[in-house]
Design brief:
heterodimer; A: alpha/beta; Nucleotidyltransferase, domain 5; 5-stranded mixed β-sheet; about 20% strand; B: 5 strands; elongated
C-alpha cells in the first residue's frame, strides 16, 4: 500500500532573482552617482546655449557656494570650503596649484549660481591665474564655466 | 482511510518585494536628479607675462555688462562699436555685424572670428548675465572669448 507522503514544493526564486538583477543593472545604467563636486545651485541657463559637453580629462571643480542676497558663503574645492576673503583665496590658490603641479593639463570648472554677484565669481579667475604661475605652468589654464544643459 | 488532500502551495513573495523596494529606495536616494551640465571653455591669458590685455597685438574687443544689482536687468555695451542695449539678442546681432556675417553688416568685416573678445562685468551684475554676454559672443561666431577678472564701473 502506498503511503500518503506530503508533497514538498520548493518555490523557484530564480526568476525573481533575475528581476532583481535586471533592476540593479537598469538603475546602475540610468543613474549617475551623486557627485560631491556639484553643490546644488541654479546654474546660468543661456538660450540658445553655445555650450559644449564637459571634457573627459581631469578637471577640478570650484563651486561658488550660494548664500542669501546674492552673497557667497565661500568656495568649495575637493569637499573643502574656503572663505571668500584674501586668506581663503590664498588657500584656494595653493590647493589649485597642487592640482596643476600634479597634472598640468588639469582644467578648472567654475560653478556659480546665476544670481550670484559677478564680483564673487570673477576672483576665482584671478586665483586660477596665480595658481598657474605658482605651479610654473607654461600654458594658459583651461577654464570651463558650468551652465545648465539646454533641454 | 483518509485520502491526502492536495495542499495549496503559495509562493511567499513578500520578502522579495521588500528587497525590490529597498533597492528602489536606495537608488532613488543615490540618484542625481539635478539637470545635466555643459560648459563654456576659455583659456586664461597669462597676465604675469603679458602685463595686461592692452599690450596684446590685437586689442581685444570689449563687451561690458553693466548692472545695478544681481537681479536687475543689465545694459550691454560694446564701447566704440555699438549702442547700449538691454537685450542679449541685440548684443548678439551687434557682435554678428562686427564679424561681417550679420544681416545689417556692411561688406567689410571689422573683426575676424579669432579676434579676442573680453567680457567685462560691473560690480553687482549677476553671474547669469555675464554668462549670457559670453554666450552671445560665442553665438556671434567669435572663437576667442574670455571673461576678465577686472570689473568695469
Amino acid at each position: 500500500m502506498r503511503t500518503n507522503r506530503r508533497h514538498i514544493t520548493v518555490p523557484g526564486i530564480t526568476p525573481l532573482i533575475d528581476v532583481v538583477f535586471l533592476l540593479i543593472v537598469f538603475f546602475v545604467v540610468v543613474s549617475s552617482v551623486v557627485d560631491l563636486d556639484r553643490v546644488p545651485m541654479d546654474l546660468p541657463m543661456p538660450s540658445p546655449a553655445m555650450t559644449v559637453p564637459p571634457l573627459e580629462r581631469s578637471a577640478v571643480v570650484v563651486n561658488v557656494i550660494p548664500a542669501d542676497e546674492e552673497e557667497a558663503m565661500g568656495y568649495r574645492l575637493d569637499g573643502e570650503t574656503f572663505s571668500p576673503d584674501s586668506d581663503g583665496a590664498d588657500l584656494l590658490r595653493h590647493a589649485l596649484a597642487a592640482h596643476l603641479l600634479a597634472d598640468p593639463s588639469t582644467a578648472l570648472v567654475i560653478r556659480a549660481d546665476r544670481a550670484a554677484r559677478s564680483e564673487l565669481v570673477l576672483p576665482v579667475l584671478d586665483v586660477a591665474r596665480r595658481a598657474a604661475a605658482e605651479a610654473g605652468l607654461q600654458h594658459p589654464v583651461r577654464v570651463e564655466l558650468a551652465v545648465e544643459a539646454p533641454r | 482511510m483518509r485520502r491526502g488532500r492536495p495542499v495549496p502551495i503559495g509562493l511567499n513573495v513578500a520578502s522579495m518585494i521588500d528587497v525590490v523596494f529597498l533597492l528602489l529606495m536606495y537608488f532613488m536616494v543615490a540618484t542625481d536628479f539635478s539637470p545635466a551640465e555643459e560648459t563654456f571653455r576659455m583659456d586664461l591669458p597669462d597676465r604675469h607675462i603679458g602685463s595686461d590685455s592692452f599690450s596684446l597685438k590685437d586689442h581685444p574687443l570689449q563687451v561690458e555688462v553693466l548692472a545695478a544689482g544681481a537681479r536687475s536687468h543689465p545694459i550691454f555695451t560694446i564701447p566704440g562699436w555699438g549702442s547700449p542695449t538691454g537685450s542679449v539678442d541685440s548684443l548678439r546681432t551687434q557682435l554678428t555685424d562686427l564679424l561681417g556675417t550679420g544681416e545689417h553688416a556692411d561688406s567689410r568685416a571689422k573683426f575676424t572670428s579669432d579676434h579676442p573678445v573680453e567680457i567685462l562685468v560691473s560690480p553687482g551684475a549677476g553671474w547669469g548675465w555675464a554668462v549670457e554676454a559670453f554666450n552671445a559672443a560665442v553665438a556671434a561666431g567669435f572663437t576667442s572669448v574670455r571673461l576678465d577678472a577686472r570689473t568695469v564701473s
